[in-house]
Specification:
Oligomer: homodimer
Order of helices and strands of chain A: EHEHEHEHEHEEHEHHHHHH
Shape of chain A: globular
CATH architecture of the largest domain in chain A: 3-Layer(aba) Sandwich
Strand order of the largest sheet of chain A: 3-2-1-4-5-6-7-8
Structural class of chain A: alpha/beta
Radius of gyration of chain A: 21 Å
Largest interface: A-B, 100 and 100 residues
CATH class of the largest domain in chain A: Alpha Beta
Chain lengths: ~280, ~280
């Protein structure tokens, strides 16, 4: 099978390496505007040749869009326009409702399967890709009834091969949920990084006493701005709601701490401890 | 040497197990109001006998206070009052200025060494203790000039044996810094947990799509309310300042996202990426 990876970064690269580790004989084609990434992807065996997008589309059985969401937004109709009629197009973007609405009435909509793998690290680029990134992770497929059965089945078969878990949902619901359990985490981390870096200007040695708790909460502040800025715009309404709710919780903590109301802060934290139940499910 | 561990939980227990793994022949005495913890600590070899506090104090060469900070606050003068004149008292609390001010003029102040190991996990209790918790971690010693040379040297020798790194600072500076690099991380995580748990009431399946980024930022919301509520009161002014600065950063993000100002959000995140430099230092 000829598979094009459009955007040979962490996610696209790991998709290719993961599939190569469980299925033989595929020919992978790389498309990327970043020439260094193209060279690196060839060198690491992520792809076997580099093409321009139009050429890649013309000869692919499966096309995987693993670019930032602002790029997917125009690539999606562009690629559907040019896709051979039996080929399949998927994207791996972190927002879904905008795209899906965008191609809702496209004559070839049914050749597209809307995917979001809940996987990634705070690093980016082909050199960070590794075969096991997707294994045991959740793949969300949105609006599956809009896809042709054979297109959906091809994607399901690949997901199974990659040993991913599977969850179907509606694109709008996806975007509402992901704002809370992914996008908000990233903003909380970016803002935490900024707050402490700001303080460092006055208190030079502040990081001498940072430990694993700090690292854990601030790790996502290393994430790529080019990837995240468009996500924030695409999912702005949902993120704004989540962020507003988060700010309210923090203001409540601040008020309680200002008043030294220990019983109330203990109570809030006891509620928060319920996250153990959730994390136990996640770490299973 | 006879060493009393007052509070046989994660930190006190790990201090004992860590020392036992590198030095032989010490006799460890446990003091705890939680009888289950006492039984568990004996069973796990964390301590060799259980005593009431007064009895433990009378026969110890080294006394380690590993209780929540509201308890350390009264235990510190109480223990100094009863400590044999050549013995040494340390605490492992996460705030420092309150205690140190509290015993500043105590006739036996110089037998006390004010310590804060930057180590811990989100778990608590003796069953969670392990010998390697303190290894390679930072030990902060505050106001070292207020301690006798022999008392300080005893503590330094133990720190070296435990293979910890060492940093001296003034108690007030300690509390200012730790508000930013530890206490704020915990509140950001508790508040994130609360926000998403609240949303779960309406959107049942929200956690189906939570991944490692979410786990990482919310992990600290599992922390013990009994330990953290008093810390927030003790260090209220510094935490309130840090929390205020954090809320401002989040409000800025919200404003930018509401206005879909992608360039500005990209710029904020690029600043935040500077945290790579810091985390590289921490993970070394």
């Amino acid at each position: 099978m000829k598979i094009s990876i459009v955007g040979v970064g962490l996610l696209g690269g790991s998709f290719s390496l993961g599939l190569q580790s469980v299925e033989e004989g595929h020919h992978f084609i790389g498309v990327d505007i970043n020439e260094d990434h193209c060279t690196k992807a060839l060198e690491l065996g992520i792809v076997h040749e580099i093409c321009q997008l139009d050429e890649a589309l013309a000869k692919s059985d499966l096309v995987v869009l693993a670019t930032p969401v602002n790029v997917i937004k125009w690539q999606l109709p562009y690629c559907l326009d040019r896709l051979p009629s039996n080929s399949v197009l998927i994207d791996l973007g972190s927002t879904k409702a905008t795209f899906n609405g965008h191609v809702e009435n496209h004559p070839k909509r049914s050749r597209y399967v809307s995917c979001h793998p809940i996987a990634g690290t705070e690093n980016s680029g082909p050199a960070e890709a590794f075969p096991g990134l997707l294994k045991n992770k959740m793949m969300i497929i949105c609006d599956k009834d809009s896809s042709d059965e054979d297109a959906l089945n091809l994607v399901l078969q690949k997901i199974k091969k990659l040993e991913m878990r599977l969850h179907f949902m509606e694109a709008k619901q996806h975007d509402r949920h992901i704002a809370y359990v992914s996008h908000l985490s990233h903003i909380s981390s970016f803002a935490l990084g900024l707050t402490v870096l700001d303080k460092e200007k006055i208190e030079k040695s502040i990081f001498a006493m940072a430990g694993s708790g700090f690292s854990s909460t601030v790790r996502l502040a290393k994430s790529s701005p080019d990837m995240w800025a468009p996500i924030f715009s695409h999912n702005a309404d949902n993120i704004s709601e989540a962020l507003g709710a988060y700010i309210k919780q923090l203001q409540l903590f601040k008020e309680i701490i200002d008043k030294r109301e220990e019983d109330k802060s203990r109570e809030l934290m006891e509620h928060a401890n319920d996250i153990r139940r959730v994390l136990m499910g996640l770490d299973r």
